[in-house]
Design a protein that fits this description.
The complex is a heterodimer.
Chain A (H helix, E strand, L loop, with lengths): L11 E12 L2 H17 L4 H22 L5 E12 L2 E12 L3 H5 L7 H9 L14 H10 L4 E14 L6 E19 L1
Antiparallel strand pairs in A: 1-2, 2-3, 3-5, 4-5
Helix pairs in contact in A: 1-2, 2-5
Chain B lengths: L8 E2 L2 H8 L7 E5 L5 E2 L1 H14 L2 E5 L3 H13 L6 E3 L4
Parallel strand pairs in B: 1-3, 2-4, 4-5
Classes of the chains: A alpha+beta, B alpha/beta.
């Protein structure tokens, strides 16, 4: 078991839960999901938080395996962070899944210049490149998960497109100058 | 059928297909989710779709509260509410 990293300023402390992993297949995704319960229970985190974290990790990673076309697969990390301000401590779970693949726009058959609009479409229920109407639930589920509870934020960065949503900020998107070659999905949740 | 015999975590469509192959084709089927900790939406969607094709009357029981909501949403999205029933926790 790790101890929370001791920051002499006492502001931010980090506990790695699932250290950075590379994955290429659904079997790798299953392995990561298998590890989460014990990692969370060892640190006193709840079953519902395990389920929500696994949902984010699995859906984002499944998207990489099925759609990214990345030669090196993807990378995932889960960590706990707490921030202390004026004597009040708030714990967060942070999940990040990224890949250097074709990006959301190309995987939906769109031009890279349409990256922002492509992300917005990808978050809608039922958007998929597979042609199966039951697919395409992944990013939509993540959006529902963060919008349904306070203290949660979803960010998606793909090519020049950036999207974020949460209960307090609502859906927002923009085209940004810095390009992420592939897709990065991050979710922050109050623990 | 006890899901715990296949693990505590179920995260992918691939695993759903693998387990569904082991579901016997019969008129009525009870699937026990006791002690299961993780279900991803993709797993749930694939699994429900496949078991509903194998059985006319499916009961899902002992789902933890945090998993029950996901399963209920999945069954509704698939339009299988009359075929797949979720047993309430005692």
């Amino acid at each position: 078991m790790h101890d929370l990293d001791e920051d002499p300023r006492g502001v931010r402390r980090i506990l790695p839960l699932l250290t950075v992993r590379s994955f290429r297949s659904e079997t790798d995704v299953e392995r990561m999901a298998d590890e989460l319960p014990d990692l969370f229970f060892d640190h006193g985190l709840s079953k519902s938080l395990v389920q929500d974290t696994a949902t984010v990790l699995a859906e984002a990673a499944n998207n990489v395996v099925q759609h990214a076309g990345s030669a090196v697969g993807g990378f995932a990390v889960v960590q706990q962070r707490y921030m202390q301000s004026q004597g009040l401590r708030t714990d967060y779970i942070e999940i990040a899944v990224a890949d250097p693949g074709r990006g959301i726009a190309e995987s939906l058959g769109r031009e890279p210049a349409d990256a922002e609009a492509a992300i917005i479409d990808a978050v809608k229920e039922g958007t998929t490149s597979t042609g199966d109407r039951h697919r395409g639930i992944g990013l939509h589920e993540l959006s529902d998960l963060v919008e349904g509870s306070p203290g949660r934020l979803l960010e998606i960065h793909s090519d020049h497109g950036f999207y974020q949503t949460g209960q307090s900020i609502g859906p927002d998107s923009m085209t940004v100058a810095n390009r992420f070659r592939g897709t990065a999905v991050t979710v922050v949740m109050v623990a | 059928m006890r899901m715990i015999d296949f693990g505590r975590s179920f995260a992918t469509r691939e695993k759903a297909k693998r387990i569904a192959k082991e579901v016997p084709e019969r008129g009525s089927l009870v699937i026990d989710f006791g002690d299961v900790v993780v279900l991803s939406p993709s797993f749930a969607d694939e699994f429900i779709g496949r078991i509903a094709a194998a059985s006319q009357d499916v009961t899902l029981e002992h789902l933890a509260p945090e998993l029950e909501e996901l399963m209920a949403r999945t069954v509704e999205r698939r339009g299988l509410s009359t075929q797949v029933r979720i047993a309430a926790l005692a």
